[in-house]
Amino acid sequence: MIDIHSHILPTVDDGAIDIETALEMAKQAVADGITAVVATPHHGNGRFDNEAPDIHRLTDDLNEHLRISQIPLTVLPGQEIHTYRNWLDDLSTNKLTAINGSRYMLVECSNALTLDQRFEVEMEEIIHELSVAGFVPIIAHPERYGVFAKDISKLKFCVERGALAQLTAHSVTGLFGEKIQSASLKMLREGLVHFVASDAHDTEYRMLQLSGAYEWVERKFDSEYSLMLKKNALRAVNNEEIETRLEKTQKRKWYFF
Ligand SMILES: [Fe+2]
Question: Tens of pLDDT along 157-179?
């Protein structure tokens, strides 16, 4: 299994507090059956700025620690980019980086954007501008934003315009409460989800685990769905085409009516 969203790089954001914690998170990942993890430190969220060259350097450092400690896990570079003011201007600089150098960029929506009445206009612009620059946004944990959780059509709007969506594993399994779990379920049911990722921050509460969430998807839906989500993580790091359930879900609805 591959995890496309984690805060395993030590001391750069609110994730791993030191190298020991990062190595412990890596051990938990390996125990869960994970072989590669994308390190996606926060960038531009008003608290943390982590620019691409630093992320690449720190990823190399962590891989060296993992090798010395004989922990069979590979860390790949990435970034969780907050939609800060004029952030699209930074596309032409070397501050931003997508998942493992692919076209898939992990994007965290700012609260200002999700509360904005011009939400659709802004999101359409973001998706369009990224696509012109050769990138595809992956919306990080939509189930944890009121705007998407309350009104799933907002997420559908983004997905139909080319965005992808990533649920957090612990949202799916219910660790973040019933409301978030039921929002996750709705999004999965509508075929709006392309990835499940850990968004791991530590070794106790937000751990680097995925298997429980995939098992849950398999129980609630089918093994084909969980396999699609698993494979999509590999496809993202390899910069390959991502599979979706959206069409299938829509066809099914058509059939039922
Ligand atoms: Fe995150």
Answer: 999 999 999 999 999 999 999 99
